[in-house]
Design goal:
The complex is a heterodimer. Chain A is an alpha/beta fold. Chain A has a single domain, classed as P-loop containing nucleotide triphosphate hydrolases (Rossmann fold), CATH 3.40.50. Helix content of chain A is about 35%, strand content about 15%. In chain A, helix 9 links the parallel strand 7 and strand 8. The longest helix of chain A is centred in the last third of the chain and has 22 residues. Chain A is globular. By secondary structure, chain B is an alpha+beta fold. In chain B, helix 1 crosses helix 2. The mean pLDDT of chain B is about 95. In chain B, strand 3 and strand 4 form a beta hairpin. Chain B contains 2 helices and 6 strands. The chains are: A alpha/beta, B alpha+beta. Chains A and B meet through helix 1, strand 1, helix 3 and helix 8 of A and helix 1 and strand 6 of B. Strand 1 of chain A pairs antiparallel with strand 6 of chain B.
Chain lengths: ~300, ~110
């Protein structure tokens, strides 16, 4: 499911597509335009006869039910029982299969705007790039500023601009993967759109969601925006270097977070001073090693 | 949250089902939305009109069936109603409740021709 155009062409490194695209696609699937446009001014008045052939032919028996009973329309009830997010889920599974095949550990970084996701990633990359192969997908509504900051560290980065979209979805990430020459046995960091609500619902195929919260935000954010903290496996409490100047209660914050997600792991870090970052690197590298080990036991080439 | 893209997801499902099941117009869409799933039915209705314009579901009615929030309280050992996600058990006040219902976002059925 692509938020930008609703049809399958996420914009990578470009701006949003015109809303008209959505409408054009709709017309392709409804077959009234070509055959019947002259004798049906309103799209609603012709639903009890079929429109199979040329404009000249009106076949009352050619409808879906194959019969025409005067006074009865051929409307029918279709039970479908489909999850609205099922489409995104199938794209996410395709991404996940690709990561598994290439032994890539993919992490989806989520937070409010301004929590320090990009700064943290720059720090992580600088510290890990000598021993890990890293690539980054950046999600923002506009600009490729973040991808440029990442590229300055020397690792490849793809910017996805979501336009009006408030989150990345699995389809956009799938597109980005086509442009990103993902290396085997590598790390993929996906920086989601700064938004503590919507990205929680959209699986991108990542192994873990990592939620950042900074000490300049309220310590009760996990209680106010519980979905994200429930969806994440690790919380990084960033900007720890500012704690002496703030009234932020770390214990209370972690308690709020554990209430919505008892399995959440927490690390207190500062991307600026490097405090606590070693623990985060250990967390990453343990999981990266596990991804590799799984691959070896499967017998697939490393 | 993100009702616009959810609604676009609904239209995509409609288009897929239209191809599979051979219908060309959708008259009614019946959705099942959980009361504590974070989706606002009113926002969904608002988006539905905009998103379906020019598609096979233009002018279709949207019916939203809301399913109530409920959870399994580990301390009480039974199913209890939940008014908010990650909320406390209304009977014992503890937070040891696993949500079991109210998070649904599904297209249930359609009226088509």
């Amino acid at each position: 499911m692509c938020t930008v155009c609703g049809c399958g062409s996420a914009s990578i490194e470009t701006g949003a597509q015109d809303l008209k695209t959505v409408h054009d696609h709709g017309h392709e699937t409804h077959d009234h335009t070509h055959s019947h446009d002259h004798d049906h001014v309103h799209g609603h008045h012709h639903h009890d006869h079929a429109h199979a052939g040329a404009a000249e032919k009106i076949d009352f028996g050619g409808g879906l039910a194959g019969v025409h009973v005067p006074g009865m329309s051929q409307e029918r009830i279709v039970q479908i029982e489909r999850d609205i997010l099922s489409k995104n889920r199938s794209y996410a599974e395709a991404n996940r299969a690709r990561f598994a095949h290439q032994d890539v550990l993919a992490l989806n970084f989520v937070s409010s705007p301004g929590s320090g996701k990009t700064s943290l990633l720059v720090r992580v990359i600088e510290d890990l790039k000598s021993r890990q192969t890293i690539a980054v997908i950046e999600g923002d509504q506009q600009t490729s500023n973040d991808a440029e900051r990442i590229r300055a560290t020397g690792v490849p980065a793809i910017q996805i601009n979501t336009g009006k979209g408030c989150h990345l979805d699995a389809h956009m990430v799938g597109h980005a993967l086509e442009s990103l020459a993902l290396q085997d046995n590598s790390l993929l960091f996906i920086e989601n759109v700064g938004n503590l609500v919507c990205p929680a619902a959209f699986d991108l195929g990542e192994e873990h969601k990592v939620v950042l919260l900074s000490t300049t935000e309220g310590e009760d954010k996990p209680a106010k925006y519980p979905d994200m903290f429930a969806a994440a496996d690790l919380m990084l409490l960033n900007k720890a270097d500012l704690l002496p100047h703030l009234d932020f209660d770390v214990g209370a914050c972690i308690a709020h977070a554990l209430r919505v997600n008892p399995n959440l792991q927490t690390l207190v870090v500062s991307a600026k001073t490097g405090e606590g970052m070693a623990a985060f690197y250990a967390w990453i590298e343990t999981r990266a090693a596990r991804a590799q080990k799984t691959a070896q036991s499967k017998g697939t080439p490393a | 949250m993100h009702e616009m893209s959810l609604t676009e997801g609904v239209v995509e499902i409609l288009q897929e089902e239209a191809r599979k099941q051979g219908f060309s117009r959708v008259r009614l869409v019946r959705l099942e939305i959980g009361a504590i799933g974070g989706v606002d039915p009113q926002a969904m209705e608002f988006c539905f009109d905009a998103v379906t314009r020019g598609t096979l579901a233009e002018g279709a009615r949207l019916e939203i069936v809301t399913t109530p929030g409920q959870g399994w309280c580990l301390d009480c050992g039974k199913t209890v109603p939940l008014l908010e996600r990650f909320g406390a058990c209304p009977e014992c006040g503890n937070h040891h409740v696993q949500m079991t219902g109210g998070g649904e976002m599904r297209v249930r059925e359609l009226e088509v021709d």
